Amino acid sequence: MIGRLNHVAIAVPDLEAASAQYRNTLGATVGAPQDEPDHGVTVVFIELPNTKIELLYPLGDESPINGFLEKNPSGGIHHICYEVDDILKARDHLLAEGARVLGSGEPKIGAHGKPVLFLHPKDFNGCLVELEQV
Amino acid sequence: MIGRLNHVAIAVPDLEAASAQYRNTLGATVGAPQDEPDHGVTVVFIELPNTKIELLYPLGDESPINGFLEKNPSGGIHHICYEVDDILKARDHLLAEGARVLGSGEPKIGAHGKPVLFLHPKDFNGCLVELEQV
């Protein structure tokens, strides 16, 4: 069911410093910051040859990243995103297997303009898993 | 400098259950467990079309994964691994940039039989970063 690893998301306490580090110290291709007000984050994508790293920084007081950075002041890996062909079919299969989908259970439109869902970390070895329909 | 994302490593409290979940619930291609006594882990590789997930389970009392699972009993993302062409050149560049290399600073042979190094998580947004020469 799952396809490519679309991205690994890393929450960072300083988006400019983290972008500069990936660009200069690690020599990667780093994009420009994009505000995603619907998700309460500003994101920077780092293009690797086979996948992406998504740097996440809080946007607004209600950002879901605020709590994560309070617990992890240096930052940390926030989630991983797997691609699926049909997100509703994937969701229904996972629900039938006993996995929990976060929020309303209906896909939202993610940072790439595609439908996404998040799965409960307790059901997936402590990892927050995003599914993105491609 | 960094190339492909070689793998994302997830520490799991039950290797058999996690393997079965990736195989059956998530429909991925899951390999057989491999003991890596030099690293104190048993690993299972999950082959995605563009990269791998490495499930990590402690092997022995001195396993570096024991402490992680004590702090994260459900498991969690343990590290990410970037490929580099020349690990000694990468190391020297990172040291010159002020990053810290864990252990002796000399590459060890990793789970794929290739030289690897680990970088200090505090220097990389709270992420443990492995570099693997390919």
UniProtKB/TrEMBL annotation, chains A, B:
Q: Under which EC number(s) is this enzyme classified? A: 5.1.99.1
Q: Which reaction does it catalyse?
A: (R)-methylmalonyl-CoA = (S)-methylmalonyl-CoA
The entry lists its GO molecular-function terms as: metal ion binding; methylmalonyl-CoA epimerase activity
Top enzyme class, one word, equals isomerase
Q: Which CDD domains match?
A: MMCE
Protein family per UniProt: Belongs to the methylmalonyl-CoA epimerase family.
PROSITE patterns registered for this protein in UniProt: VOC
Which classification does the entry list for the species?
A: Bacteria, Pseudomonadati, Pseudomonadota, Alphaproteobacteria, Rhodobacterales
Q: Where is the VOC domain?
A: 4-134
What is the originating organism of this protein? Yoonia ponticola
Name by which UniProt lists this protein: methylmalonyl-CoA epimerase
SUPFAM superfamilies (UniProt xref): Glyoxalase/Bleomycin resistance protein/Dihydroxybiphenyl dioxygenase
Q: Which UniProt keywords apply?
A: Cobalt, Isomerase, Metal-binding
- One GO process term, biological-process aspect: L-methylmalonyl-CoA metabolic process
At the top level of its lineage, which domain of life is listed? Bacteria
Does Isomerase count among this protein's keywords?
Answer: yes
